[in-house]
Amino acid sequence: MAQVIEIVDVDVPVHTAYNQWTQFESFPKFLSYVEEITQIDDTHNHWRVKIGGVVREFDTVITEQHPDERVAWNAIGGKDEHAGVVTFHKLSDSTSRVTVQLDWKPEGVVERIGDALGFDERAIKKDLENFKEFIETRGVEEGGWRGDVQA
Question: Quick check: pTM over 0.85?
Answer without folding.
Answer: yes
